[in-house]
Amino acid sequence: MSAETQTTVEAAPREQAEARLRPIRWKFPITYAILALISLAVFALLAPAESQTQFRLATSTDFFTIPAITVPSAPTAWVLGLALAVLAALALLRAVQRRRLGVWHPIVFGALFVLAFLVWAGAGRGAVIPLVTVLTGALALSVPLIFGAMCGVVGERSGIINIAIEGQLLAGAFLAAVAASLFTSAYVGLIAAPFAGAAVGALLVWFSVKYHVNQIIVGVVLNVLVIGLTSFLYSTVLTQSPEIWNARQQLPALPIPILSQIPIIGPVMFQPDHPGVPDVCHRHPAADLRVQIPLGAAHALSG
Length: 303
Description:
The chain has helices at 3-21, 27-44, 73-96, 104-121, 131-157, 165-183, 186-210, 215-238, 242-245, 265-269, 288-302; strands at residues 52-56, 69-72, 128-130. The chain has 303 residues and is mainly α. The chain has a three-stranded mixed sheet. The longest helix is centred in the middle third of the chain and has 27 residues, at 131-157.
């Protein structure tokens, strides 16, 4: 037996012993179990027995039209709830075995839970669930979270614990809105936004590096400062002359040819100005339900 083979054989029992000594992480299994219980106790039990839920998968700009899918609400909710219970049991088993779950598990669990919510929300209400609008809203709402996470990773790699990410995003959004309104150009706001975020980040680094102030404390203080400053300026300046400081400016829609016409994927990924359901609120008050369902699902998917 070579030295390399012997080292590998000796390392395997050591890794197994370390796995047995590792504490059990109950946070995710308990979370999965609670969500599965909610799906069974609320979405499945409270879904009307004879109702149906209809999902719309196509838009008017697609190459071809995918017909709407209609499913029985209660049986579908039960199937999805049981699938969530199985995934929760798998998470519990892996936790007891001190083994990690794959990346696929939270993705599949989250998708099934949101789908169960949509089935229950649209059951017997005569509302068509526009999946394209839900996915488009989820993608739009997840952009700040993705940028914030990337900002935190870059700061951590450079040795700075950046707690002021929320303040950076808020300062950038505020300056972008003001600059775009003042110069009547959305491109000016797009260019101005990074400068506000960079200024907040520079303050964090300045206090942390030059004066050795606790980075977490400085980050929290900067968040409170930006929240208070933007709230004060909004209530005293922007609301007094909204036509100058707070006029809406919108970037033009730039749909990518061919790609934007692929069903489902095209409107979500390659058609940034997809017409959403909230426009119907101005036409009929009863359409409010059709707005609340997609927006709630979009918030769940984006988070």
